[in-house]
Amino acid sequence: MEIAMSEYQYLRMLAFFEFSRKMAEQCEPIQQQINEALKIGDWERASELENQRSSIAADIFWERVRAEDIIRWLELDSDLRSRGDSTYPDVFEKISAGFPIAEGMRI
Fold first, then answer.
1. pTM of the model
2. Which of 5, 8, 15, 42 is the S-S candidate for 67 at Cβ 3.0 to 4.6 Å?
3. How confident is the model at residue 4 (pLDDT cuts 50, 70, 90)?
4. Are residues 75 and 12 in contact, defined by beta-carbon separation less than 8 angstroms?
5. What distance in Å separates the CA atoms of residue 65 and residue 57, rounded to the nearest whole number?
6. Total Cβ atoms within 10 A of residue 47
7. How many Å apart are CA 105 and CA 59, to the nearest integer?
8. Beta strand segments in the chain, E
9. Exposed, middle or buried: residue 42 (CB in 10 Å: 0-12, 13-18, 19+)?
C-alpha cells in the first residue's frame, strides 16, 4: 500500500525523525546517568545532569521548530506562486506595510 505524501509532509517527517534521533543520541544517555545518580542518592549530581539534559533538549526542540517554520514558509510560498498571486515575501510586505517597524529592527 502506497501512501500519497507531499514534499512538505515528507520534509516535516524528516524533521521529526531528526528531532527524535538527536533526542535519543544526546538526551537518553544523560537520562541514564540521572537515574544512576538518583539510585545512589546523589541529588546534586542528578540536578546538574537534569539541567544539562533540559538545555540540550530545548536546543534540539528549537531546531525542530525552526525547521518546521522554514517548511511552512516554503509551502506557503509555493502555494502562492501556484495560484499566480505573489510570493510569500511580497504578501508579507503588503500586510506589514500597515505596521511600522522601529528603526534598526528590519532584517
1. 0.72
2. 15
3. confident
4. no
5. 12
6. 13
7. 24
8. none
9. middle
Residue 49: Cβ-neighbour burial (10 angstroms; 0-12, 13-18, 19+): buried
SS3 of residue 38 by DSSP: helix
Q: Is 59 helix (H, G, I), strand (E, B) or coil?
A: helix
- Residue 39: exposure state from Cβ atoms within 10 A (0-12, 13-18, ≥19): exposed
Report residue 23 as a C-alpha cell. 533526542
49: nearest Cα among 26, 36, 33: 33
Q: In whole angstroms, give the CA distance from residue 21 to residue 2.
A: 25
Distance separating alpha carbons of residues 42 and 22, to the nearest angstrom: 27
